[in-house]
Amino acid sequence: MKRLFFFTAIAVMLSSLTASGAPVNVSEFKLAPRIAARVASGEPLNIYVSYHDVSNEFSPFVRAGVERANKADGVNAHFIGPVGSNADAQISEIETLMGKMDGLAISSVSSDALAPLIDRVVAAGIPVITFNTDNPDSKRLVFAGQDLVQSGREAGELMAKVLDGKGRVIITTIDAAAQWSLDREKGAREALAKYPGIKVVRTLNTGSDPQEIYSAIENAMLADPNIDGILSMECCSTPAAGEWVERNGRTGKVKVVGFDLLDMTVELVSKGVIQATIDQAPERQGYEAVNLLVKFLNGETIDNVDTGVGVYTPENISEVIKK
Amino acid sequence: MKSNANTGSASKTLAEPQSADRAKRFRIPLIARLLGAKETGIFLALIIMGLFLAVSTENFLSSTNLLNVGRQISLLGIMAIGMAFVMISGEIDLSVGSTYALGGLGTGMLILMGWWLVPALLMGLVFGAVIGLINGVLSTYGRVPSLIATLGTLSVIRGTALIMTGGQPVTINARNGADPNLLAAFEYLGQGYLFGVIPMQLVFFVAVAALGWLLLSRTAFGFRVFAVGGSAKAARVSGIHVPTVKIWAFVIMGVLSSLAGILSLAFMPSGQAGRTGLGLELDVIAAVVVGGASLTGGVGTILGVVLGVLIIGVLRNGLVLLGISPFTQEVMVGLVIIVAVAIDKWSTKSRSA
């Protein structure tokens, strides 16, 4: 049973990443002369890390990772990006700062909107890597982050496991049309489709305000009272699903699997209301974003980095609480 | 109806000011009055939606679902009552979603800092009042059109909430330092049930709607709100201090947005400044406009706004009960807003013509 593997009590780190890039070295890259001169002079490098929404709940963790790398590598790392997922704002900020950049790490608001910009930055001789959210169709060098389809698959597998392979499931997401959500949903549906006893009843688009999320779940559960599992695709409908289950006395009867480690999620996992949650290690993503660029500019060959997933269940959630 | 205009005008000076047309309708039989009432169109639309959902879904009419809908619309409703005052006075407030976030999360932070419940709640409402005051002063004495002024404060307030919280979620639980007794009382406001049946949020909404109705249609202040929205010039000539009235409307709006934000946090004890209440202003304005209020001011009723809120709430609930795909739902919500307002405008036109 390969699925037993998911029940390891500790965070499971995966090394499989569907690689679209190959290892790259700076000798194969047309580096802008001003950057080459800066590397040679030993002055601190100006590394820019553009995150797709600096106002979301992961942003403080990504920023912490960037700052850790900033200290460790002795560079000038700048954490930038739009407030709210705004592609235009992300593009114009990068355009404005391009002349100062010795390297750019970017998590795109929208892959399609940002790919031409990434290609332009690369054409100007500035190395670009992607982190958190990949942009595989651009000329970026490598990607550091979680494979979204794969993390969706893992969530689906976990759901199948807690349901013993049979039951009716709804998938919840705060933004059904977003690329990250579509990717995770694709993975989750793929994994669940392998179990003939499991039926995915619908995808529920909840909106992002906490009240809205709860209300949407409440309506959906009333519309179909025979739901056995709620599979959340992100941070924020995970605790809302758990709260609904707990408030309606359905703990254990309706299983919840979701993502991330918000305070409420951690609490609900430790109470056994949420059966499993997947962490995406945002701090490590921020760290790798800077670190890969520094390595690359200093002549090391770099490759994609999978920042992995951590699976937390009632058995091992205490590790998070201790931190 | 026109034939009554003359007889009506005699009693105009006696009746309370705003109700010139109520006096007009005084002699019309009840049925005709109901059919002619501004809210009839929206009410019929709501009934039709309700009948359709009762037939096509199993659960729409269940008491659980109806109480759920009641709770789900409450926060939107509380803010829509405030928006009614602002819009009838001829202004608009786009900053309400941000105020909702700042008021709620600000109160939450005070609780986590060890404030007692009542001072923390009052302070939360004060945040809202101050924001309303700023919006009001900017739009009147500051001469910045409220559309622009509140578009600016929308961003300023959300930014302030992000700075205050450092972008981290605010979670009110014992582990983060909230006192357990205080926590229970706070959560009762958002999650509790009056008499074990009626969700507390709904109780707040009904109370706010009742107070709003009293204030708008039974007091001199209410009359002035209509007057400045109908024609600021005429209001000024008749001795009404226009800026004061408008500033008060914004203050009411700010306080109610903050109240809704606080109740939201009491319901789901975790919020994040980048997400809470994002885009809520559009839902609030949609509900008020569906309820028959005019974007140009001077027109609107609390009953209409309540019906508008119900239409939006029943629609969202119904679309999920019907199992309609999430993307199609977006289309449906937009269409219903347009159709509801169009029907209202056409029927008003044919009535006044």
Describe the protein's topology.
The complex is a heterodimer of chains A (323) and B (353).
Chain A: H1 33-41, E1 46-50, H2 59-73, E2 76-80, H3 87-97, E3 103-106, H4 111-123, E4 128-131, E5 143-145, H5 148-162, E6 166-173, H6 179-193, E7 197-205, H7 210-223, E8 229-232, H8 237-247, E9 255-259, H9 263-270, E10 276-279, H10 282-297, E11 305-306, E12 310-312, H11 318-322
Chain B: H1 5-12, H2 20-24, H3 30-36, H4 40-56, H5 63-88, H6 96-112, H7 117-139, H8 146-165, E1 170-171, H9 180-191, E2 193-194, E3 198-199, H10 200-218, H11 220-230, H12 232-237, H13 242-267, E4 270-271, H14 280-290, H15 302-321, H16 326-352
Antiparallel strand pairs in B: 1-4, 2-3
Helix pairs in contact in B: 4-15, 5-10, 5-11, 5-13, 5-14, 5-15, 6-7, 6-8, 6-13, 7-8, 7-13, 9-13, 10-11, 11-13, 14-15, 14-16, 15-16
First-last Cα distance of chain B:
11 Å
Question: How does the helix and strand content of chain A classify structurally?
Answer: alpha/beta
Spell the H/E element sequence of chain A: HEHEHEHEEHEHEHEHEHEHEEH
Poorly predicted tracts of residues of chain A: 1-20
List the uncertain runs of chain B: 1-20
**Global mean pLDDT of chain A:** 88
Q: What is the H/E string of chain B? A: HHHHHHHHEHEEHHHHEHHH
Which percent bin holds the helix content of chain B?
over 70%
How many independent structural domains of chain A?
2
Number of strands of chain A: 12
What does the average pLDDT of chain B come to?
86
Strand content of chain B: under 5%
Characterize the largest beta sheet of chain A: strand count, sense, and whether it forms a barrel: 6 strands, parallel
* Biggest sheet: strand arrangement of chain B: 1-4
What count of domains describes the coordinates of chain B? 2
CATH topology label of the largest domain in chain A:
Rossmann fold
Total count of strands of chain B: 4
Shape of chain A: elongated
